[in-house]
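Researcher: Here's my situation. A collaborator sent me these components and asked whether they could plausibly form a single complex. I don't have experimental data yet, so a predicted model of the whole assembly would be a useful starting point for our discussion.
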Amino acid sequence: MSDAIRAFFAKIRAFFSKSEMDDDFNQELEAHIDLLTAENQKAGMAPEEARRAAKLRIGGRETLREQNRDARGLPFFEVLGQDIRYAARTLRRDYGFAIFAILIIGLGVGASCTIFSVVNTLLIHALPFGDPERLAWVANHDDATGSMSAKTTQVDHFLDLRAQTQSFLDMAAYMAFYGVGDAKLIGNGEPERLTSVPVTQNFFSLLGVEPKIGRQFSADECKFNAPKTVMLTDGTWRRKFGADPNIVGRALALDGGPATVVGVLPASFDFSTVFTPGSSVDIFEPFPLSPETNKWGNTLSIVGRLKPGAMLESAQAETTVLGKLILQAHKDRNDFEPKVYALTQHVSGRLRPALFVLATAVAVVMLIVCANLSNLLLARGATRQKEIAIRATLGAGKWRLIRQLLTESMMLSCCGALIGLMLALVGTRALTQLTSVSIPLLTDVHIDASVLGFTVFIALATGMIFGLLPALQVRDVKLHDALKDSTRGSSQGRGHAWVRNALVVSEIGLACVLVVGAGLLIRSFLRVLDVDMGFHPERAAAVRVDPNSSYKTQEQRNAYFSEVLSRVSDVRGIEGAGLSDALPLGHNRSWGIAAKGIQYTPETFPFGFPRIISEGYFRAMGVPLKKGRDFSARDDKGALQVIILNETCARNLWPAQDPIGKIVAEDVDRTVVGVVGDVHHMALEEGSGNEFYIPIRQTGDYGSVDLVVRTSMTTTDLTTRLREALRPIEPDLPTQNLRTMQMMVDRATSPRRFVVILLGGFAVFALVLASLGIYALISYSVNQRTQEIGIRMAVGASAEMLQRSILLETLGLAAIGVVGGMAASWILARALSGMLFGVTPGDPLTFAGMVVILGAVAGLAGYLPARRVSKIEPMSALRVS
Amino acid sequence: MVLQTLQAMGALHGYGIARRIEQISRDAILLNQGTIYASLVRLQQRGLIRSEWGTSENHRRAKFYAITPRGSERLVETAENWEQLAAVIARFFAATKESQS
């Protein structure tokens, strides 16, 4: 054992047995003096003289004791202990200040930690897959475009690319056009619609996910028309099957056909949170890569695993070349232009700017917190000058005093951080509950070691930042003046006032930036909500009513649809009902749509968004009919094949002509019978493009059927009424997935709402802090200047005049802050421009609003303390001493 | 020095050690005698010496310090180092003198 380690343990022992060791040492010194005295006496000194000489010889005993303590113990920690005890006493005496300080630090730290844990999960942490850095997202064309058909890839392209690529170890895919609630589960409690995602055979092994029970799909199970098999998510396994360990091999009654469970996925694998945030996925089924599925067109979303050493750039270069070669060899296939992204980039890339904004906002809030506390400590420091001067005269070194003051601010910040951590626990818990917010990985947000580390860092940094300035002022304390000056100064020192003013000005400036940022986002959010969506979501609801497999032919299914519509329309309280295969704000797709008789080149060939609907759909959704007629029950299989276009599509196909009666080439030639208003079908922020509607009775090309109703009934009432009405024809109607249109709109705006609420909260917090800062500054200065004010009043100044001058001083500070803040926001608002909708970064209304709000807040915060001036009695003010 | 003293004299109290160092150095090292205690604490914490309360020659209670085996080992090492260093420096000065003369 080395000397240092031995000594360290001895020091720790010494640390805990102080008084014993002190006694021990005192005795030892006494013995020493006695021995020395005896010696001196022998040498002939008188006893008194001998003792005095002995004491001289041994040196200053207090210093010796001090040296002894320093040598044997841990002086750093002993001083720290003293400082902490001292700080605790001081703060207890001034508990109002302490509580206030701890609370605002707590709020600041709570906000920072919550945002940090979101950033940590979304941007810093690896995705919950094996070796996630090597995973890539292979989109067709640009990942940023809205249209899903354009982003997905045809099966044969996928197979060719996978076979030829040298950059990727392997590639897997899932079918992007699975429908929410596609799979109906019966015979296991209440009939329920589950969401099933078709995946390629190697999907889970590519991601590095092992089933926790059973196995993955086999090659045979992934053939076309193979017997049905499924894998369950952990959630479904627990919720529907009570975590039955013997589930593998069981046949589930799915959609009329039995499907065998082959495996259960681990809880750590959460498909939806990564790939389809804000929705849930229940089961997985195999997706066959066969000529049949190739005919379905663009269907696949591809994930690839890069070979060790392969770079994204080289993979991109290779796939670009391969894409061109494959396309040249197979001109009959859909367009193919692979784009490679890191999977993390695909998952959280879009959120990066929003998170960046939130992180910046939180940092600004923290800075305001620091400025505020710094200011308060400075004010306290001024009143504590005498205490400090006394301690300095008693022998405390300057660094020792600075250290003591820093300990005090550290204690405040650490207590605050503790509260902040608790708030962050609550905050992250609340975030994970936001399942309806479509932000990836949000449900994975939690407090972990790195968040704890971050909290400690924030606590120390905060304590340091807001404590340093006031502590350093100790250096300027003039002992003599401070002790002599027994009354409060008749006017304040210029230096301190300057620092405090600067702090308040910067607080106001920072608050400005937050208010402008929040203001711009709130205005964008309101603009988004104001968008005319083309349909009326209020009072509309949808539920899946797909015909079950007993309806074999199109005639039978058409009869079923008529039956459903007539039964539902008979229900009292339902004002309109219609069927559709695609609800707005869901997935995208595109089909070609051409005006008959016009020659198009491949570049100009028009595409549009198709919807398969029944009569009554427009009325139920509130989509206005602009021209012609709605579909009717007579637009049946044998009748004239018809189509309805939206205004954009009609205009694009036949500019400046009446489209009614014109013919388009769709699956078959169809006659245009009506024109309806445009609907925002992808996102509220995006326009609608070409849209067209095909009557459900004239096609078999739909994957799902939703019943849309317009009603003012509550959801529960509606559920029971619908179930009753449809029981005779569909006894197993699963109604859990009844969704109101408003819910779907809310989900589409949820990421924006999320950012707006957080940023708005930060802005309010910043405003409150800034106004507290102003209030504290002004009321402190009024207090300090009581005597001066008294003199002024005595020589004839009126209370109003003094009030006005104080108020003007406040507004002057606010004005400087606002001007600085405005300049900063002007620059920083550019960074927001990607998140704005319908407002410019320099939106004059927002800036003007900010000036008004801050002016009002500053005025109020200055007025309250200024009012106290009128209560000052000149006589008593002069007598104060 | 403390170690050498204890090695040579056996167990001693703080006063004795201080006296001894003064004698040996012929009062060349004259300090406040109390300062000896800080170094005694350090040596003790490193386990080179140990201490116990005993009775002094004039029947007073005093704390006696004695060298530990570890301390003896260390003394040998340090002594060698010091002797080497002293010899080198001595040679160095001798050489300088020679070249000057």
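Model: Some features of this prediction you could bring to your collaborator: Strands of chain B lie at 12-13, 49-55, 61-67. The mean pLDDT of chain B is 78.
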